[in-house]
Design brief:
With 471 residues, the chain is of the alpha+beta class. The chain has helices at 33-37, 42-64, 125-141, 156-160, 198-207, 218-228, 233-237, 248-256, 261-269, 273-281, 300-307, 325-354, 371-375, 381-391, 403-418, 420-424, 432-436, 451-470, and strands at 14-15, 25-32, 77-78, 86-87, 115-120, 145-151, 178-181, 184-187, 239-247, 291-299. Helix 9 (261-269) crosses helix 12.
C-alpha cells in the first residue's frame, strides 16, 4: 500500500476550515520582516524562511535538549501558502463574521509566510511558560522577526499583566496587536491602527523608526519578567530524577529516547478499563522477567502523577516484599511506568489492527528521506537542510543518483546526524515502532540497541503513523 506524501502542514494549525483550538495547548508563530516588507519576492522569502527554520530549531535545542516535555516537544513548521488552507495564526475578530467562541464562520484570510508550532502542556503549565521564554530568546537572537504566542484563553500574556496594561487595551481590540520582538513585548497602538489586520501590524512593526512607538509599558514588562525571568534555570529545576526498577526492555527504550517517558506517564494516568486489561497481562514488556534498577528523568508533574495514583501491581509483575520499603517504592514506581508502556503499546497495536494497517507502508528510506522524522514534530528540517546546500551549490550541478552526488549526500547526511537539529527535534510519538521493526527480537533485549537503528525505526514508523492520521 503506497503512502501519501508527507508535508509540512500540521492539521491543527492549518485546515480547510478554521479548527476549534484544543485545550491546554500553547500556539506560536514567527513572522520574518522580509515577508511583510517584500511580499512579492516569494522565492527569496521561501529560501530565507527555510534557513530561519533550521537555524531556530538548532538554537532552541541548546535550551531544550535535556528538557522532558509533558506531552509533546517544542516543534516548528513552515506555514503552507495555499488559498485552500486557513491558518489559525491569523487572529480573527467576531465583528468580521466570526462566532463569539473564536471559531470562524466565514474565514478567508491568509497569514504572511511564517513559521508556526504548538505544544500541548496538559497539567504542566511550566511547559507553556518555557515556550514563552523560548520565544523571547528567539526574538533576541533573530532581531528581524515578530512573534505571536497565544493559547485557548487568547492573549494570555496580557492576562498575566492585566493590572499593568494601558487603559485602551481591551479584549475586544487586542487582536493582531500583541507581539514579541527583540526580546520585548510590543503593543501596536490603537491611535495608529484602529482595527489592524495581521499584515498591517507586521508592516507597522518592521517599518517603525523607533520601537518606543510600540514597546509595552515597563510595568507590563516587569509583570512578564517575573514569570519568564526564572528560565532556563526553572526548566532545569522542573526536571526530577528518581530511581526505579524496570523491565530491561523499558530501560533500553528510555536510555535511547528519554522523552518517551511522557507517553508512558500519559498512558498510565489516563488509563481506562480496556487499557488496564493489557496491563494485567504485560505480554510485551515483561516477557523474560529480567529487571534492572535505573535512574529515570521526568518532570515533577509526571512524578506527581505517578506517585499519587493508587494502583495494584498485576499478578504477573514481580514485586519485592512490602517490608523492604525502599526497594518496594522503586519497584512500584517502575511498575507504573512499565504498565504505562504496555497500555500505550497495546492500544497502538489494536488501532493498527483495527484500521487494517497490517502491512508496512511503502516509503523509500534508502534515498536519505528523513521527512518522516521531521514529520513527527510537523517540520521538514532535513529537506530545508538539503535546500540550503543546493542554494550554496554544494552538489556542484551533479546528477542525482551519480556516484559523486551520492558521496556528497552521504557526507551531508553524516553531518546532519551529528547536529543537535537532528538529535533533538525528533518526537517519539508512538510506541508502535517497537513492533514495526521488531527492535526487541528478544523481550529481554540481549544486545544493546544501536542509536542509528532506533532513529531509523522511529523515522519509518512515524511515516506510517503520520500518513494514517492525515489520510
Amino acid at each position: 500500500m503506497a503512502g501519501k506524501a508527507i508535508s509540512d502542514e500540521n492539521p491543527l494549525l492549518c485546515a480547510s476550515e478554521r479548527p476549534r483550538l484544543p485545550e491546554d495547548t500553547v500556539f506560536y508563530a514567527i513572522f520574518p520582516d522580509q515577508a511583510s516588507q517584500h511580499p512579492a519576492d516569494q522565492e527569496a522569502i521561501s529560501v530565507s524562511l527555510k534557513e530561519l527554520h533550521v537555524g531556530i530549531l538548532d538554537y532552541v535545542a541548546s535550551y531544550s535538549m535535556d528538557y522532558i516535555w509533558q506531552h509533546e516537544p517544542f516543534n516548528l513548521a513552515v506555514s503552507p501558502q495555499s488559498p485552500n488552507k486557513a491558518c489559525i495564526c491569523v487572529s480573527l475578530n467576531p465583528k468580521n463574521g466570526d462566532s463569539e467562541d473564536g471559531n470562524a464562520r466565514n474565514y478567508d484570510g491568509l497569514a504572511p509566510p511564517h513559521l508556526h508550532g504548538k505544544v500541548r502542556y496538559g497539567d504542566n503549565v511550566e511547559d507553556e511558560w518555557f515556550v514563552v521564554f523560548l520565544m523571547y530568546v528567539i526574538s533576541t537572537r533573530y532581531s528581524s522577526v515578530s512573534i505571536r504566542v497565544w493559547d485557548t484563553d487568547g492573549e494570555f500574556l496580557l492576562i498575566e499583566a492585566a493590572f499593568s496594561l494601558p487603559r485602551w487595551v481591551k479584549p475586544e481590540n487586542s487582536s493582531n496587536r500583541v507581539f514579541i520582538r527583540q526580546g520585548k513585548l510590543h503593543l501596536v497602538p490603537e491611535q495608529w491602527l484602529p482595527s489592524p489586520t495581521l499584515s498591517d501590524s507586521l508592516r507597522f512593526l518592521s517599518s517603525s523608526s523607533s520601537d518606543s512607538e510600540t514597546r509595552a509599558p515597563n510595568a507590563v514588562e516587569a509583570a512578564l519578567e517575573r514569570r519568564i525571568g526564572v528560565y532556563p534555570e526553572r526548566a532545569r529545576e522542573n526536571m526530577h530524577r528518581t530511581r526505579c526498577r524496570l523491565p530491561v526492555a523499558v530501560a533500553q527504550v528510555l536510555k535511547h529516547e528519554p522523552q518517551i517517558i511522557s507517553l508512558a506517564v500519559e498512558g498510565f494516568y489516563d488509563r481506562d478499563i480496556d487499557s488496564m486489561k493489557f496491563a494485567s497481562r504485560m505480554e510485551k514488556f515483561l516477557s523474560g522477567g529480567e529487571m534492572v534498577n535505573v535512574s529515570v528523568r521526568m518532570s515533577r508533574a509526571m512524578y506527581a502523577q505517578l506517585v499519587q495514583q493508587v494502583f495494584q501491581a498485576p499478578k504477573c509483575y514481580p514485586m519485592p516484599p512490602l517490608s523492604d520499603i525502599e526497594s518496594f517504592r522503586e519497584a512500584e514506581l517502575g511498575m507504573k511506568i512499565a504498565c504505562g508502556f504496555e497500555m500505550m503499546y497495546q492500544q497502538r497495536r489494536q488501532y493498527e489492527l483495527g484500521s487494517g494497517d497490517g502491512q508496512r507502508l511503502e516509503h523509500s528510506v534508502s534515498g536519505h528521506s528523513f521527512s518522516g522524522v521531521e514529520g513527527l514534530v510537523g517540520v521538514n528540517a532535513w529537506e530545508a537542510f538539503v535546500n540550503s546546500l543546493n542554494s550554496k551549490c554544494y552538489f556542484r550541478g551533479l546528477l542525482p543518483g551519480s556516484k559523486e552526488y551520492q558521496r556528497l549526500m552521504d557526507e551531508a547526511l553524516d553531518y546532519y546526524r551529528k547536529t543537535s537539529l537532528f538529535s533533538k527535534t525528533r518526537k517519539p510519538i508512538v510506541l508502535s515502532w517497537i513492533a514495526g521493526f521488531q527492535m526487541f527480537k528478544s523481550h529481554a533485549v540481549a544486545e544493546p540497541l544501536k542509536l542509528e537503528d532506533l532513529c531509523l525505526a522511529v523515522c519509518v514508523v512515524a511515516i506510517r503513523y503520520t500518513c494514517r492520521c492525515r489520510g
